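Data availability (excerpt). All sequences and predicted token strings are deposited with the supplementary files. A representative entry, NAD(P)(+)--arginine ADP-ribosyltransferase, is shown inline so that the format can be inspected without opening the archive.
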Amino acid sequence: TSSLEKSYELPDGQVITIGNERFRCPESLFQPSFLGMEVAGIHETTFNSIMKCDIDIRKDLYANTVLSGGTSMYPGIADRMQKEITALAPSTMKIKIIAPPERKYSVWIGGSILASLSTFQQMWISKQEYDEAGPSIVHLMEVSAPNTDSSLHLSAKTEFLIDGKYRLVRKIGSGSFADIYLGINITNGEEVAIKLESVKTSHPQLSFESKLYKILQGGIGIPRIRYYAQEKDYNVLVMDLLGPSLEDLFNFCSRRFTMKTVLMLADQMIGRIEFVHNKNFIHRDIKPDNFLMGIGRHCNKVFLINFGLAKKYRDNRTQQHIPYREDKNLTGGTRYASITAHLGIEQSRRDDMESLGYVLMYFNRGSLPWQGLKGATKKQEYEKISEKKMSTPVEILCKGFPAEFAMYLNYCRGLRFEEAPDYMYLRQLFRILFRTLNRQYDCMFDWMQLKQKISDASPAKPNSSSSISLSSKDTSDSSNTSPFYNACRENDISTVEEYLKSMSLEDVDRLEPNGSTALHVAAYEGHEKIVELLLKKGAACSIKNKYDATPLDQTKSNKIKQLIRRRMNHTRFVSDSVEWILKADNADYQAHEYLKPLESYGKHPRFYEYITYIKQNFLEKDLRDIDDIDMIKEYFDKAINEKNPIYLLIAYTAETNFYSILNIHLAKMRVENLTAEENLKLAYYIGIIARHPNFDTLSYTGVTYRGMMVTADDIKQYTKGARILTKTFSSSSVEPNVALRFMTNDSTTSNRSSTLCIYEIRNPRTALDIRNISMFPDEEEVLILPYSAFKIKEIKTNYNRSPRYEINLQECDPW
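Structure token line:
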């Protein structure tokens, strides 16, 4: 039947007929020869495309191949693509085919977003243009020169190459002083944005803007500059290509954003303005058109652009602020201008912040009360807008919306001319509101969610059938990463510090939709300070990303490698050596004998004198040169002065290497010499923690977990039924994930295997529950005391995953 056949005329006049044979046999996608077509299948085409790309990005492309369009809806096509490309690709490459559930409409959704852009009309190529220029019109269009009567003609004979490699493709926007074009780097195919300004313009701005961009380079949400120069009759600025503006996206979302989107945008927008202010400049043209979303992996990030009207407000060296002046002409647009700017007062930081407040209310309301006002002249129009703005109380402007917006505007209007805004206070206003509204900070903006609504409103999927049996499994993924992850990736130290104040370790170690943790990306990007902050919080070093790599594997920075290895060596939850001695049948007897003489130390009414002895003979002699020893001494002084042994436990869990050195001394000591004079400093410490009555309420019974890194010879010591005796303090956790995340196989321990010990604590005072005492409550710590006896119940070997070994240990009955 030909009922599904349809003919189409292409721009070059060729007529093609699309028949139903393609849709009756999905195997033809992989073997077009079934249809008499000697061309590559989709798997081969995909493989060939990736292999033509730069070798540095092939790994990412193989791991991020996304299916889209109605043809990709055949059941099992993702698995089939996975199989075929795996067979073609190098064996070292990890292949991942992503098939989002809504992919049938994803191409249409992308087209609808494109069509909603204000610049869409400038992207068309008409049939007439195609007939006149032929296929070359795709790359060689006639580009009208900005702000001049002359034109720049690009033809097949003469190409205007900027810096010898950037070719103009088409106009995509216009600014006050320059026009913006899509460009392409002909050497590598990378798309860029190109701003052209005629050298004949009466008020050139591009040179100043390029210098300011260079000052701001490296800032979060600031596009990178690739090139600036004068070429032919133009000042040319080549920079990162960005996505749609917030004004474009506002229109796409029917001119109303949800509160969630407004608050997520506010957080980033305040941060962008703060960065510019910290570089000694004010923007003076804050409006939705000058905030753009990024593209690709930066699609969740807000960028601030167009600095042609920016002004330096203070001296770099002296920090001297510009003087207060009046009778100034209004700079920038009127809709979002501050009241003081309308009054002719010199602008300062407060004006940018007030303008942002109007932008946020514009997003909330859909419009502002002074929009649409007209006058016989521009001056009269400005006066009407100014009058309406000043006569509209903040409470009326913000009526029906959370009070935080009125608080924001009142704060900004109340700032003095030279006063620095409290940016963190303003961000916190909206962050607290966000949490109060119980929203999820997932960077799922309204325009992203709209595609799902479009998908839901579309006709139901047709019932697909296939003559070839394919697997029905499907995979899905998301490219949306959290703001915290993004801040770690972009080296936004202040934002990361703020997030970490309220985040749990589970949140810090969360695998993002892209299969990576915050520590992975910070290590990969080489952000040492971010890595330090994450490790200080307790971020796991052993979690593997989708490439089966730990943060240590990801980084190229020697400093970061040292930081991670130091953390792995010092963690209380995993040991790089065997911590106990095998006592076979009499381990329980040995535990009794060693602890018995220590009871008097812990129960002595003047126990604090023993603590003084430990401080004088251990801290001030053996440990005097260790890092942060003063912190440990302070805890000991508190224990002595307040006669409270709890500070001994706090010292143990403090973020120093005290616990590590303490345990090294215990491990090296011959246990039969425990009460010898040279070891009394250690005996007193154990005795007080093991037997002081203040710790009775901390006694723990139940299951707890601890990790080890052991050699093949070490593991041979652990046989089922054997009994062991602990020699040191052993930190464990009631949460197995805490123990697991501290284990890793880095190059320094390549001959060791990860081992998870599962303890069953049965007797009182063998272990202490210090979750409410530890400096890191998220670690859910249980401290197993020295000279505790256990029987090995079971040893399990996991050949294909971590941990390699699992050892179940049950505490022996008391002697």
